[in-house]
Design brief:
7 helices, alpha/beta, nine-stranded mixed β-sheet, five-stranded mixed β-sheet, about 30% helix, Aminopeptidase, 2 domains, about 375 residues
Length: about 375
């Protein structure tokens, strides 16, 4: 009987990580599906994602941080909801794979010939159209529209320099795009006014035309899935301190959601003991890098001690202060914070190839354990 109990306990302990990684993979699959359309600016992608995530918080049993789970705000953004057609030298190019429009490009429709500006840039002055040849295509977000149309073309898509074109591309500037942070809380059992935050951004780049969207698996469905896994855990295991969760919108447009929260906080910023922000959490073969490690050496030593004691990640690299994710405006307001991202593995980033099918999530469970154990040290447990 004793031997049977040992076997059952071992089975249960090995099943727990599998359950976490299974949840993580399922959530990444969900968030990168066509329904959410890149969690961006067309097809209501970002709104659908925010509503879905708020419903998840409610299901887990988190309390709203404000009147409800959503903290709305708005900002301008250039979008591409319609036609996305380009032919160069008589060859039809595939959006996302062969070409992308620059985020601030204006719409353009016409045909004609190019003249070279240099070895990689070609212009048609009549249409104010510029083609630029690139080794890799990466997209982003712009708040305004330029007076010309710049299109980036993968060098491998053409067998000779661009000489002629046919183009039909629609753009629409949305001056007051409505977005929302998703905010939830698990109240502390002893010191509810002391809060530990776990944050990630849920927005991505959205779609480019009617048929192409950017899934954003590593950036940042991976971080969202990790946060949701932790939210479920803490909802079932309330801690001494309150644990807050924020899923930011507008990160890809310039950290807009996190800036808005720090200027309109739903809890006093002085009550935040520490904030851990995660982005690009889908790999980890080469460990992680922690931004602000040199700013908060005591906490960085604590995190390393947790990692060493539990034999989790291969390495935790230290990096100094950087304005490269949603932790930044919190530290500018005096809130101690780390931002970590995983290293190694796939190189897809801000492109159509950042898909769930190729994202390993190989350190999802170790990151889950690292954050829980690190938070225990922060609370003095």
């Amino acid at each position: 009987m004793r031997r049977l109990l040992v076997v059952l306990l071992l089975a249960c302990s090995s099943a727990a990580p599998a359950q976490n990684i299974s949840f993580g993979k399922k959530m990444v699959d969900t968030l990168t599906s066509p329904y959410f359309w890149g969690r961006g600016y067309t097809n209501d992608g970002m709104k659908k994602a925010a509503d879905f995530l708020a419903a998840e918080f409610k299901t887990y049993g988190l309390e709203p941080m404000g009147k409800n789970y959503l903290q709305p705000f708005s900002y301008p953004v250039n979008t591409f909801p319609g036609k996305m057609e380009l032919s160069v030298n008589g060859k039809d190019l595939v959006p996302g794979k062969d070409f992308i429009v620059n985020p601030d490009a204006k719409g353009v429709k016409g045909s004609g010939d190019f003249e070279p500006l240099d070895s990689i840039q070609f212009i048609n002055r009549k249409e104010m159209l510029i083609i630029k040849l690139q080794d890799k295509l990466t997209w982003s977000v712009a708040p305004e529209v330029a007076s010309y149309s710049l299109i980036l073309v993968d060098k491998k898509a053409l067998d000779k320099a661009p000489s002629s074109f046919k183009v039909n591309i629609d753009n629409k500037l949305v001056s007051n795009f409505k977005a929302a942070n998703v905010c939830g809380l698990v109240k502390g059992t002893v010191k509810p006014d002391s809060i530990i935050f776990i944050t990630a951004h849920y927005d991505h780049l959205g779609g480019m035309g009617k048929d192409t969207y950017f899934p954003g698996a590593n950036d940042n469905a991976s971080g969202v899935s990790l946060l949701l896994n932790l939210a479920q855990y803490y909802a079932q295991h309330p801690q001494k301190y309150s644990i807050g969760f924020i899923l930011f919108a507008g990160e890809e447009a310039g950290l807009i959601g996190s800036k808005y929260f720090t200027e309109n906080p739903l809890v006093p910023l002085k009550n935040i003991r520490f904030l851990t922000n995660t982005d690009l959490a889908g790999t980890g073969e080469e460990g992680i890098t922690v931004v602000n490690a040199s700013e908060f050496p005591k906490e960085f030593a604590m995190m390393n001690a947790v990692n060493d004691d539990n034999k989790l990640l291969t390495k935790i690299n230290a990096r100094g202060k950087a304005a490269n994710s949603d932790h930044y405006f919190f530290t500018e307001k005096g809130v101690p914070a780390f931002f970590f991202y995983t290293l190694g593995g796939i190189k897809a980033y801000h492109d159509v190839f950042d898909k769930a099918a190729t994202l390993p999530l190989n350190e999802h469970e170790d990151l889950f354990k690292l954050i829980i154990k690190f938070n225990e040290k922060l609370m003095g447990l």
